[in-house]
Amino acid sequence: MGPLLLVLAVLAGAPADLEAVGIIVSRRPEACVAILRSGGRERVAAVGEPAFGGRVIAVVPGRVTLDFGGEHVEVRLAGVAAAPLPSMRAATSGPPEDPTTPARSMERRDMERRLGQEVPRILAETTLVPVTEGGQVAGFTLTRLPEGTLLSDAGLRPGDVITTINDVPIDSLATLIGLWPRLQSESDIRAVVLRNGQPVALSVHLR
Known about the structure:
By secondary structure, this protein is an alpha+beta fold. It has helices at residues 3-11, 108-125, 150-153, 173-178, 180-183, and strands at 19-24, 33-38, 41-46, 50-51, 54-60, 63-68, 71-76, 104-106, 127-133, 136-144, 161-165, 168-169, 188-195, 198-206. It is built from five helices and 14 strands. The model is unreliable at 1-12 and 79-92 (pLDDT under 50).
């Protein structure tokens, strides 16, 4: 933020060091997500959700608008220009499926019900470690994964390196988290993972 915007933001009740470090833009405004940072902490918030004492009211390419007690504060993306994610259509070509984890099919209602029950366990028991290539994050290794959850039922295993989901390169944790609002409207979810050094495809069809 510039000096004038910083003063106005502080007067409105926003943290002085509040910045936007990532933006996920969706065709549906309510599905857009901002990654905000303040006080050394990061918060991922969709439109309508709270963040650092305010509430996100708009996420558009390049900036995030928050409401702090009736005062609107605009936070521009730090350092880089925002752009919409690539198309979320399932890939038509790519690595083969692992025969031990063939394509799955799930009822969307069943997936949503299970997510409501399993999210606390998934968050507590899943460990992701970034994998870098040429100094850039090229995916995340699942070093720990709770058995009997949607993640394992989708075919993921400990040791898998998640590289793409529906053609979107997983180059940061923010990208991985920000995909969720868009995946909710998809009928097919396809991940490419490195398993024992070889790329394999995992796919789930939602009915």
